[in-house]
Amino acid sequence: MFGVTGDLARKKLLPAVYDLANRGLLPPGFSFVGYGRRDWDDEAFTDYFLESVKANARTTFRPEVWRQLAEGIRFVSGAFNDDEGFENLKRTIAELDESQGTEGNHAFYLSIPPVGFDQVIEQLDKHGLVDKTKKSPWNRVVIEKPFGHDLASAQELERKVSSVFNTDSVFRIDHYLGKETVQNMLALRFANQLFEPMWNRNYVSHVQITMAEDIGIGGRAGYYDGIGAARDVIQNHLLQLLALVAMEEPASFEAGKLRAEKEKVLAAARAPRSLKHHTARGQYTAGWAGAQKVRGYLEEDGIAPDSQTETYAAFRVDIDNRRWAGVPFYLRAAKRMPRRVTEIALMMRPAPHLPFQMSDTEQLGANALVLRIQPNEGITLRFGAKVPATPMEIRDVTMDFDYGTSFAETSPEAYERLILDVLLGDPPLFPQHREVELSWMILDPILDYWADKQHQPEAYVAGTWGPPSAAAMLERDGFVWRRP
Amino acid sequence: MITTLKDTTSAQIQNAITKARQSVGAASGMVFTLLAIPTADDYDDAFDACLAAGREHPSRIIIATDGSTRTERLDAELHIGDEIPGEVIALKFHGELMHHKTSAMLPLLLPDSPVIAWWPGRAPEDASADRIGKLAGRRITDAMGTDDPLATLVARAGTVAPGDTDLTWTRLTPWRALLASALDNHQSPVVSGRVTAANNNAGGLLLAAWLRSRLGVPVDFEADGGPGVTGVTLSTEDGDITLKRPDGKMATFTAPRTPPRSVALRRREVSALLSEELRRLDTDKVFLESMACLPSTVNGNEG
Hints:
The complex is a heterodimer of chains A (484) and B (303).
Chain A: H1 7-22, E1 32-36, H2 42-56, H3 63-71, E2 73-77, H4 83-100, E3 106-110, H5 117-126, E4 139-144, H6 151-164, E5 170-173, H7 179-190, E6 204-212, H8 221-224, H9 228-246, H10 255-268, E7 269-270, E8 279-285, E9 287-289, E10 292-294, E11 312-319, E12 329-334, E13 341-348, E14 368-374, E15 378-386, E16 394-402, H11 403-406, H12 414-424, H13 433-453, E17 458-461, H14 468-475
Parallel strand pairs in A: 1-2, 3-4, 4-5, 6-12, 8-17
Antiparallel strand pairs in A: 6-13, 7-11, 8-11, 9-10, 11-12, 13-14, 14-15, 15-16
Chain B: E1 2-5, H1 10-24, E2 33-36, H2 43-56, E3 60-66, E4 74-80, E5 87-93, H3 101-105, E6 115-118, H4 131-135, E7 138-141, H5 149-159, E8 164-166, H6 167-171, H7 173-185, E9 190-198, H8 202-215, E10 219-224, E11 229-236, E12 239-244, E13 250-255, E14 258-264, H9 270-277, H10 285-302
Parallel strand pairs in B: 2-3, 2-6, 3-5, 6-7, 7-8, 9-10
Antiparallel strand pairs in B: 1-4, 4-5, 9-11, 11-12, 12-13, 13-14
Helix pairs in contact in B: 2-9, 5-8, 5-10, 8-10
């Protein structure tokens, strides 16, 4: 693993490895090699690993499991451009193949900023750590979003990666979109008779896909600045959600079939015709959020005072096919929102006729089906009901389903599934490069439009639901953003 | 189940609610968020009224109060699943946070459902322009909870906006129902009216304003010893229709050519008023029209 000292590795990846070991899901002889610039030996790294496990693992700590896992933990010190480091890495892996019996099967996890991808992949190739021509033993690579910063760079990255690794061996990880979530959505859509008949333009007026984070950029200035909300999460996470909610039924859930449907719907999706009217971007300013005083984006450590990076991005996507023609999909992603929430809301058309007095139904909103992704994954159905003890007052009520309360079994942490799938070579839910490229094709015109404008994103106070232009964008179409 | 959180944030409160929910069961079907902003003196009564309203309307109730100025932090107390179907979140704001209450409330509003703000006592001068008021689609004040109800209600008439109501108005519902049905049964037009109530009784004044706005005839407002509204007289060409309640409990109704009748017209608890008010969340147009007539009714009284 490259990037073992990063936040993600410490909080999620290393603990997930331990949790897998604890559940007995790791293959015998599993070994873990960290590579990084720190001047650590195996022991120092093992201590660091242990600390992160104790702080963040989800399963209970069992010394005997840890002892066994620790036997296969190594650290190799070196920079990404350090030939000697990679030679050491090669030797260490070869030694583990011998002592632990890993038989030359290796997965390289690149938990590093995108600027490092090229170098690491080149180095792996140069030092003969990967042999693309052989199927067995296998060599796999895991890369994390963002997959490039536009279509051209994504294609360039793909060229580099595929020159060293086979297409099937490349795992692109969207750490927000766990496999469980994808499977839950597939089950809801394709295992039920109730929803499919209304899953189209005849009944759905528009769809809102939201990913709101209550945190700011924290210590990620170096990564975030210049990337922004659209590249950070809309390109990968939100467009994947859009694909899953809008695609046709796949012939089977086999990897290729599922991918084919996602690619089809992404190819039919496009940026809005009027970029002026149907895109919005914002940047948070200092304020009080969730009872805490927080800084504005431009005052965050490591951010240039004239940065034009957006922390709020929203735009409309249209899908030109029979099912969705005329149904706008509104995507929004932002930081420093009032609360952390990811959801997909299918907003229904109004009833064709309401045999009530106007004042009776004044409080009745649109019926909605909301797929809650996090927190409290579940489904909410919203519809009108009569208020008791009134002549005929109709008001919205909700029916909630919680995965957490209906199934007491905790679903495995997304990273555990991801790591396990990589080890098993099971890639169905990871996007392949074609999906990544199609997503950039939707996003590129919007990013170009924003880049051309050369002015500050619109300000919004931290802890509020975004800039006025975002509200205006929906109002123009006769809708309002849900308060999620 | 009561959970206490010291020096906390909205995100931590949200997590605690989720945790509590998972142990007491799902909270499906909460219909709105009620924001109650009592002063320290009103707190206990407001809390009880919220619980009662929460029984009729399963909802998330957020009660916000000011704490000490010596520290700066947010404390929260969550009542979940013990007495009511919904949730009560009591927030105490210390220090500068007192001026940023909405920052803690906004994240805790239930998704996509109505928000109602209720000030049991002292309320902002212009409720719909207030920061908490702006979070809400319905704003409920209570002139009777202030030191000078009459002046408060008159001031409120100057700022009242769609979505606002005052519990003074809710207290009049039974009176209004009785008077309206009386007039349905007597075809002869009303030529003038008179309302008597305790000195400084805002309800009496508002009742007079309502009658003026609906009937378009002069209606006088006169002070007597109370308690509350003591009587209404509507003069018609046929004779007087009267509704008298001298003791605050039983009222007597008289009309031309009908024998006097007794009706129970008890003064009601705040909790009952609040529950009634929460049944309708759309703008009360009749209230707005009556409030528009309020200043001229006061002047008519003085003149």
